[in-house]
């Protein structure tokens, strides 16, 4: 497997990022290509839960355990046809190795995503309050979990919602990072 990727949640550039020194870092096992991409497609269309859980285990074996209270999956899109949230199963797999509990306090704000998509907003510019949250202990430290990082807008919206709940977002982990023209990243896995 190729080198892991560590990058800035705000712009997708290499971390630490000179433009966004305060932004959380995101860790990915690989870029969205080859077998890593096949695994995502298999997760989405075949044995979803099992594959997602395995991805989470592999993520956790690849990176050192973060010092956080909870892993937080991004919420399942309202328009998704799936009956489960793949990010939650990835989080559970990672949490089983790291021994970090998973909590799911986030949801898409009713109608907001549909509205944004209808008005032609690009994924990159989702409205600030598109994800909302409730039911997280105040002062919790968290890592956000998703399957694929594309523009980062979903993770940023999740981070805003979590910060609104008083959590501190220490970073994010994903299975793979999409985006063709990204620079090569040096493996700086801890
Ligand atoms: Zn940046």
What is the mean pLDDT? 85
Q: Uncertain regions: pLDDT < 50 for 5+ in a row? A: 180-190
Strand content: 15-25%
Radius of gyration computed on alpha carbons: 15 Å
Instruction: Write out the strand line-up for the largest beta sheet, numbering strands in chain order.
Output: 1-2-7-6-3
**CATH architecture annotation:** 3-Layer(aba) Sandwich
Largest sheet: 5 strands, mixed
Order of helices and strands: EEHHEHEHEEHE
Structural class designation = alpha/beta
Number of helices: 5
In the residues, how many domains can be counted?
1
Count of extended strands: 7
CATH topology name: Rossmann fold
Q: How far apart are the first and last residues' alpha carbons, in Å?
A: 17 Å
- Given the C-alpha coordinates, what overall shape results? globular
CATH class call? Alpha Beta
Helix content percent band: 25-40%
**Which hetero compounds are present in the coordinates?**
zinc ion
Task: Give a short overview.
By secondary structure, the protein is of the alpha/beta class. Helix content is 31%, strand content 21%.
What does this structure look like?
With 190 residues, the chain is of the alpha/beta class. It has one domain (5-177): 3-Layer(aba) Sandwich (Rossmann fold), CATH 3.40.50. It has helices at 34-45, 48-62, 86-98, 112-118, 153-164, and strands at 5-8, 25-31, 70-73, 106-108, 131-133, 141-149, 168-177. Helix 1 runs antiparallel to helix 2 and helix 2 crosses helix 3. Bound molecules: zinc ion. Zinc ion is lined by residues 8, 10-11, 13, 17, 19-20, 23.
């Amino acid at each position: 497997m190729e080198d892991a990727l560590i990058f800035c949640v705000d712009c997708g550039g290499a971390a630490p990022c000179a433009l966004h020194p305060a932004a959380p870092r995101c860790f990915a096992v690989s870029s969205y290509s080859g077998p890593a991409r096949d695994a995502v497609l298999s997760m989405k269309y075949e044995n979803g839960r099992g594959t997602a859980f395995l991805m989470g285990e592999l993520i956790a074996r690849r990176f050192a355990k973060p010092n956080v209270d909870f892993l937080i999956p991004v919420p399942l899109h309202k328009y998704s046809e799936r009956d489960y949230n793949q990010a939650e199963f990835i989080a559970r797999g990672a949490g089983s190795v790291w021994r970090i509990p998973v909590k799911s306090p986030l949801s898409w704000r009713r109608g907001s995503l549909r509205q944004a998509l209808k008005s032609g907003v690009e994924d990159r510019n989702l409205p600030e309050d598109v994800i909302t949250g409730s039911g997280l202990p105040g002062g919790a430290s968290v890592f956000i979990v998703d399957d694929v990082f594309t523009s980062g807008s979903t993770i940023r919206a999740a981070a805003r919602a979590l910060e609104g709940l008083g959590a501190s977002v220490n970073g994010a982990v994903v299975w793979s990072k999409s985006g063709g023209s990204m620079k090569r990243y040096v493996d700086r896995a801890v």
